[in-house]
Specification:
The structure is a single chain. Strands 1, 4, 7 and 8 form a four-stranded mixed beta sheet that branches. Strands 3-2-5-6 form a four-stranded antiparallel beta sheet, with no helix packed on it. The protein contains 15 helices and ten strands. It is α+β, with helices and mostly antiparallel strands and 386 residues long.
Length: 386
């Protein structure tokens, strides 16, 4: 028996770009911390205090000096670095938003130089005549250099943030040409910002949508390259691997897409179900149905409450049903159970009618009522006193 997957593939073709923060209306902050010698600072606390309403969070840096805190409600925060119980640096008024993490980095070596320069200069940033007289020519040259480096660092950070923010806003408005221009500028200012490369990748892929032929291919390749750089800088980000995979699938690079989605699932077990579901969708659209069925089964194993995975797995099993000589349908084991489970989890879901029709087609009895197992039961009514 052959069941047409056109309807299913149309649903799956609209693969979501997996962004946990966006779906949950939350945001995230991430960054790198370096000590006074410019080396990664391990086990330092980064405190994140919300200023618009009460909310306090904190996270510890790993051995690479990196930190990441997701699930932050959208808002304004003060971010501070605490070492040995003391706050040594801070960033105030950080406004979070949906999408990629807001990058907040701390470099104590740069801060130390800036503090030294500030302590040696007046409010205008100039050494006093008394200070100059007390310094050797070599000391003065070092001080001047430190002050210039501080000024350049401040100017660079502002220009980088401005270019990045302009590019992200253009990307949101689907002004892909403007997004590429601004984000390319940001990537040139600081090639080590993974979040910049990830946004630039999406901008290139957005540009490619309106192109054809060699021009489209060239833009998609630029997008792949940008995603590759983001992953090179942040190889443990499951979201990057997932989004890169979806981009590769658009370019018909299915083996590479499968590899990236598998990596995402292995890196982020709590969300492995969604990654395997995406993998199954890609395989269906590539007519690799056996492999697709296996991926949907993995999605169910990873998340037993993933309703859509049960439905798609049921569709796969239906495609493997056999017909007898007298026209009777012999379904694969587990077919009815897959549709039943979908209906239990989503009794009013968009595929509920289709699931019921599939059960009827394979000769299974349909329950008259499906209830969500997580729904709370109404309290029993008390009898009247006589």
């Amino acid at each position: 028996m052959h069941v047409n997957f056109i309807r299913s593939s149309k649903i799956l073709a609209s693969l979501f770009l997996f962004a946990l923060a966006a779906s949950a209306q939350t945001s995230s902050i991430a960054g790198e911390v370096k000590d006074y010698d410019g080396k990664p600072l391990k086990d330092a606390w980064v405190k994140i205090d919300r200023t618009d309403i009460k909310g306090n969070y904190k996270v510890k840096t790993n051995k690479k000096g990196e930190y990441f805190h997701a699930g932050l409600p959208l808002g304004t925060y003060n971010v501070s670095l605490e070492v040995d119980g003391k706050v040594v640096d801070s960033m105030k008024g950080v406004r979070t938003k949906l999408g990629d993490p807001i990058p907040i980095n701390f470099d104590l070596q740069t801060q130390k130089k800036a503090n030294e320069a500030t302590a040696a200069a007046n409010s205008a940033g100039q050494l006093t005549k008394e200070q100059e007289r007390g310094m050797s020519a070599d000391d003065k040259a070092k001080m001047d250099k430190a002050m210039k480096e501080r000024e350049q660092a401040l100017a660079k950070n502002k220009a980088l943030n401005d270019a990045f923010n302009v590019g992200v806003e253009a990307l949101k408005q689907q002004k892909y040409d403007d997004a590429v221009t601004s984000l390319s500028k940001a990537s040139e200012m600081d090639p080590k910002q993974h979040v910049v490369w990830a946004q630039l990748a999406d901008a290139y892929l957005g540009q490619a949508k309106s192109k054809t032929g060699d021009e489209q291919t060239a833009l998609m390749n630029k997008g792949f390259e940008a995603y590759g750089k983001a992953i090179e800088l942040k190889p443990d980000d499951a979201g990057y691997h997932n989004n890169y995979a979806l981009a590769l699938a658009r370019g018909k690079k299915f083996p590479e897409a499968q590899a990236e989605l598998t990596k995402a699932a292995q890196m982020d077990p709590p969300n492995a179900g969604r990654y395997y579901f995406n993998l199954g969708a890609l395989l269906v659209n590539n007519q690799q149905l056996d492999a697709a069925g296996e991926a949907f089964k993995k999605a169910i194993d990873a998340d037993p409450n993933y309703a859509d995975a049960y439905y798609q797995y049921g569709i796969f099993l239906v495609s493997r049903a056999k017909n007898t000589a007298d026209g009777k349908i012999i379904p694969e084991p587990g077919t009815k159970e897959a549709f039943d489970k979908y209906l239990q989890l989503k009794p009013d879901g968009k595929d509920a009618d289709s699931a019921k029709a599939m059960i009827a087609m394979i000769g299974g009895g349909i329950q008259t009522e499906y209830k969500n197992p997580d729904a709370k039961e109404a309290p029993a009514k008390k009898g009247k006193k006589k």
